[in-house]
Give the backbone structure.
Amino acid sequence: MSAPIIVTALLGASDFAWADGLRRRHFPPERNQVPAHITLFHHLPPSLADEVREQLKAECRAKAPAARLSGLRHLGRGVAYVVDSDRLAAIRQRLVEHFTGMLTPQDQAPWRPHITVQNKVEPKEAKALLAELERSFAPRPLQIAGLASWWYRGGPWEPLSEHRFR
């Protein structure tokens, strides 16, 4: 069965533990089917699996991009941390150019990198969490460890490839 491909940036171990812990605490358990991540692409055609793998592998031959958590974003029915990284944005832009003509409208839209820690809740609950997290938020560095691709078949994502920056 063919399935669309999702592409994400992987967080460093301590940042992953922190973000995934928040996600486990604040995401409705029945909806939390994937670990904390930064989505680069939501839906690439399954026919591109080998090409996606090769492109991600090539991008990861460089050192890891510097990144920062710069704020919080209200998602309406959830909350996310805003990620700023010029180098990660440049990587994504190269991939956009490589896969031109094969991107969905969502993946063609301007990219707003973030780490979702809550989604699919009532707006009032999301606003309360946003206010709680804003009280202690301070911008800080974020480690980006690699890039990964996943098969999306409606439930938890199935790994396709994982590549670590050198």
